[in-house]
Design a protein that fits this description.
Layout (H helix, E strand, L loop, with lengths): L4 H5 L7 E6 L6 E4 L2 E4 L5 H6 L4 E7 L12 E2 L9 E4 L1 H8 L8 E6 L2 E9 L3 E6 L2 E4 L3 E6 L24 E6 L6 E2 L21 E4 L5 E2 L12 E4 L3 E5 L3
Antiparallel strand pairs: 1-4, 1-8, 2-3, 4-6, 5-13, 6-9, 7-8, 9-10, 11-12, 11-16, 12-14, 14-17, 15-16
Length: 242
């Protein structure tokens, strides 16, 4: 939805939502082998892959929970105006698919630049960066894949990363949340989830369910190192050894 700058400055987000300034909706440029090339996404899947995955917080509601979506965990709001944040692909998918939902998107002209604003459910935020550094959000654990064949003296993978259609499900923890997350099965009725937050420390090695982690950013448009995110409740085990 195209609005004026004055209208943008007066926007107030609803309960459980954050207004984020994103650098673009869908990029037409990617970096491949140190070369910048232009392309056009055709399918919705490609459009989501090329969609923005981070931005700067412009406005945030003090309450984290978004009732209609019935997220199954509770926790504090841990972002503020000016923070850089990364969010799930679902958050950008609302506005970058062919039949996008205009109620989540606003834009206005500022000089020669088009400013893009995305409304993100707070619980779709994954990672925050401020003056104190990085903090994972919403019980997400930020990890990097372990590309080595030997995971420890006890566990050996049968393939290297990228050697087959399967990817390793062993990860090293890079960023962790504050830990103040509580799962409530009543909010996940009728599934009655017994999920519990798992405490992790930076540097720990963990095993997850196969295919559970999600790339934090699209491989050709990263602002950080290659990282993935998972919620702590799906960690199966911690692994000792180098």
């Amino acid at each position: 939805m195209i609005i004026t700058k004055e209208e943008a400055l007066s926007l107030n987000v609803g309960v459980g939502r954050v207004l984020v300034r994103i650098p673009y909706v869908i990029t037409s440029d990617i970096v491949f082998n140190n070369a910048r090339i232009s392309l056009q996404a055709v399918s919705d899947e490609a459009r989501v892959m090329l969609g923005a995955r981070h931005g700067t917080v412009v406005s945030v509601h003090p309450k984290a929970d978004l009732g209609p979506l019935n997220y199954s965990w509770d926790g504090p709001v841990e972002v503020k105006v000016g923070d850089e944040v990364w969010f799930t692909p679902d958050a950008i998918a609302k506005i970058c698919t062919v039949q996008r939902d205009e109620s989540f998107y606003f834009a206005y002209q500022e000089g020669e630049e088009m400013v893009h604003l995305l409304i993100v459910p707070y619980k779709e935020l994954v990672l925050r960066k401020d003056n104190s550094g990085f903090l994972a959000l919403n019980d997400y654990i930020i990890c990097k894949r372990v590309p080595m064949k030997k995971i420890s003296e006890f566990i050996i993978l049968e393939h290297l990363e990228g050697a087959s259609g399967d990817e390793p499900d062993i990860f090293d923890v890079v960023y962790t949340p504050s830990g103040d997350i509580r799962y409530d099965w009543k909010k996940n009725f009728p599934f009655k989830s017994g999920w519990k937050s798992v405490s992790c420390e930076v540097g720990e090695r963990v095993k997850t369910f196969r295919g559970a982690p999600v790339d934090l950013e699209f491989s050709y448009n990263r602002t950080l190192d290659p990282l993935v995110f998972i919620q702590s409740h799906i960690i199966m085990a911690k692994i000792d050894g180098e």
